[in-house]
Design a protein that fits this description.
single chain; 192 residues; alpha+beta; 2 domains; 5-stranded antiparallel sheet
Length: 192
């Protein structure tokens, strides 16, 4: 499984209709701000179709195109490319020539596929967001175990509390400490 490192976009024209695809890395399933921003950028567009995958949650929208001709083809490309934490929005400006159901499926598929070719990727591995509590004398050991993990939050009081993102394999190495799993998710690993 993989995700994109950076947002990217691409523009194609098929039979006078303009299709602009935005590939967006998302950190939660609330895509409304992204859709609103794109609608503001393209207020005269005919359709704003999308598909997204967030932590294996999938959703798509045809936004007024005939059922199954836009959102599902967009989502299918994301699934075929094994992507996660990605939103693909395709803005369409109607060019006066009807494409038919098959033509729309091919056009939306091509718009996303061509944009995906421009993206840079990182890999995703299964992991957890955890909270870990430990004594000050264990800090060096815990930091060593977490050296390749992302520590999101540190709190120093009577004891030390971390919130961090860890790979599945590390959970067993933290058994000696008070560890709580907050969320199961995928963790991004950039290829070296």
């Amino acid at each position: 499984m993989r995700t994109i490192q950076f947002n990217c976009d691409n523009d194609i024209v098929i039979k006078n209709s303009r299709f602009i695809c935005y590939l967006i890395k998302i950190s939660n399933k609330d895509i409304t701000p992204y859709i609103d921003k794109i609608k503001n950028m393209h207020p005269k567009a005919t359709h704003y179709c999308y598909g997204y995958i967030y932590n294996d949650i999938e959703l798509c929208s045809d936004d007024g195109e005939p059922g199954g001709t836009a959102g599902m083809p967009i989502l299918n490309v994301l699934k075929k490319e094994n992507l996660n934490y990605v939103l693909a929005v395709v803005v369409r400006y109607f060019g006066g020539i009807k494409l038919g159901a098959g033509g729309l499926v091919r056009a939306y598929t091509k718009a996303v596929s061509e944009t995906i070719k421009l993206a840079q990727y990182s890999f995703l591995v299964k992991g957890f967001k955890i909270r870990i509590n430990f004594n000050y004398n264990d800090e060096k050991n815990v930091n060593y175990v977490l050296k390749d993990s992302l520590i999101v939050k540190k709190d120093y009081s009577d004891s030390i509390n971390y919130e961090c993102l860890i790979e599945v394999e590390l959970l067993n190495k933290l058994n000696n400490y008070n560890t709580v799993i907050l969320e199961e998710l995928y963790i991004e690993k950039i290829a070296k």
